[in-house]
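Ligand: NAP. Inputs:
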Amino acid sequence: MPRVLVVGGTGLAGRAITAEAVHRGHDVVVASRRVPDDDADAFVPGADYRTADIVTGDGLEEVLDSVDVLVDASNASGRAASHVFAAGSQNLLHTAARFGVHRAVLLSIVNVDRSAYTYYRAKAAQERSYQDSALETRIVRTTQFHDFVTSIFQRGARVGFVPAPAKVRFQPIAVSDVARILVDAAEGQGAPNSTRTFGGPRVESSRELAEQWKTATGARGAIVATRISGALGSTWRAGQNLAPEQAIDGLRYADWLRSIEV
Ligand SMILES: NC(=O)c1ccc[n+]([C@@H]2O[C@H](COP(=O)([O-])OP(=O)(O)OC[C@H]3O[C@@H](n4cnc5c(N)ncnc54)[C@H](OP(=O)(O)O)[C@@H]3O)[C@@H](O)[C@H]2O)c1
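Predicted complex:
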């Protein structure tokens, strides 16, 4: 079986990708700046955890040695996003090319090149690094994760209401489904050098999703339509976060809520 490197394999999506790749019998190396304790949620038994920083390059050569395929599930917010997505992906791909890595798979976001939102612009630059790379690449764009939509509701609920972004619909997808798609791509599914999009199973209004979250959690507080300002709000209200034609037959939000401890 090929040796697979999961960059950012301790993160939300990365640990699901790591678990899926280990489950399929791959030899899996995980790279991140910190290695989890073996009783931490992020720890997947069977994976080999190493420290590496894609921005500074520290540890990169060591983790890329003898790797056949890399999957990039790294992430950062604020100013760090441009470092991780621009400089980080350049470092990663150049070093990977030197070490004879055959294929690189990137986890990205639906329509990320159509938004002026700063984080999305940094992700679009990351995609361009993959498109320009000498390696065989596959970019996999997905809609927002179930966990991401949930975090919007949780944030407001702490102060007594449930915010539902006004005039916004989501098509959330389970990270377990994302992991299967990413590992399929790592195994060679999809055309070389392609960008493919996958959406969650259903498009629903933020209010409908907030109602499902309230039912599952028993949270009190009214659902309040909240206007999201700036480029992110415009992107969402324009429906650019949706991919109805690429909906997968996956785990729906309400079923996912029932499957986890909320
Ligand atoms: N949230 C969504 O709804 C959604 C939807 C579609 C696509 N995505 C994309 O999915 C990707 C993963 O998101 P996530 O929420 O799963 O990420 P996350 O939970 O924030 O995890 C980020 C990972 O990146 C690692 N990392 C950060 N900086 C690093 C560096 N300099 N060198 C090496 N590793 C580094 C982190 O470990 P250390 O901090 O220990 O280094 C961690 O393992 C992102 O690119 C995001 O854009 C997200």
